[in-house]
């Protein structure tokens, strides 16, 4: 509101006296003024609520000068402390754990790690799910802390690089095809069994097969035939005694020059058979060869 007042002087007293008075009413009054105050009050309340929510979010999310909560921002990357959940894919060049703790990746469904080339195509993948774990790539390699190859597999085959493959299952190892190895050895104080339930079992080597039992017996059992074959060398049975327990036992007879005894004969082909013994050897008289 602006008030204008015109002042004049009288001739008699010389005093100043107001002649006319004009009042101009400028502003907002009435219900408009109350609405304006109410709107300003509402804006102030919203400002206070926003400021309180911002402070609350910062306290809950643990914002600080180094980062947000367990997530800290450093020059060499991000450091995450404790357990965290990722709802969407995570892209990172390198993920390391602290020196005094393990790196645990846990998911209720599956965990998949993908490697892509420049075109975005997947070149390698490791997927661990509730039922199985699968690896997709050109080759699969497991190394020790000393950079020594422990296991290597590609499309051409698999290699156990440590020099020893140990199978601890009660049923042992099942091989559907041939196996190449320089040594088959049982665990200490355990039996070694090579078994083929429905097919034949063949052991072949360019320089021979050496079978040795340090403590205990060496048993060979077959439903049909047992064939020991040496193409260019000898067949050596090195033992204190070689026994054929299923051969019939002979008894001394009473006739002159006739005995109820048998002798074991060997054919030129290597076949073994027994023949009734006489005064002299009867192997040459037999036609079992």
Strand arrangement within the widest β-sheet reads: 3-4-5
Portion in strands = 15-25%
First-residue to last-residue Cα separation: 143 Å
DSSP helix fraction: 10-25%
**Number of helices, counting only DSSP H or I runs of 4 residues or more:** 1
List the uncertain runs. none
Q: Sheet with the most strands?
A: 3 strands, antiparallel
Helix and strand run? EEHEEEEEEEEEEE
Average pLDDT, all residues: 76
C-alpha geometry: rod-shaped
What is the number of E strands?
13
What structural class should be given to the helix and strand makeup?
Answer: alpha+beta
What's the Cα radius of gyration? 50 Å
Explain the layout of strands and helices.
Blueprint: E1 2-9, E2 16-24, H1 31-60, E3 67-68, E4 71-74, E5 77-80, E6 111-116, E7 122-128, E8 133-136, E9 139-143, E10 149-154, E11 157-160, E12 262-266, E13 272-276
Antiparallel strand pairs: 1-2, 3-4, 4-5, 6-7, 7-8, 9-10, 10-11, 12-13
